[in-house]
């Protein structure tokens, strides 16, 4: 998984009724675009994420899904 600042990180809900969490990557802490990422979510919460299999990256240039 690779990302750049400004890409969207989408964490899909894991149980029925749980909504996806969408955040903007504000810092790439790994090398060459690899995790971990500092992410600012829509509710203003900011945290460090090492994405798992329930996560995808949407690149800012194309909107392309990578997961």
From TrEMBL:
<feature type="compositionally biased region" description="Basic and acidic residues">
    <location>
        <begin position="55"/>
        <end position="67"/>
    </location>
</feature>
<feature type="domain" description="DUF1918">
    <location>
        <begin position="1"/>
        <end position="57"/>
    </location>
</feature>
<dbReference type="InterPro" id="IPR015035">
    <property type="entry name" value="DUF1918"/>
</dbReference>
<dbReference type="Pfam" id="PF08940">
    <property type="entry name" value="DUF1918"/>
</dbReference>
<protein>
    <submittedName>
        <fullName>DUF1918 domain-containing protein</fullName>
    </submittedName>
</protein>
<feature type="region of interest" description="Disordered">
    <location>
        <begin position="41"/>
        <end position="67"/>
    </location>
</feature>
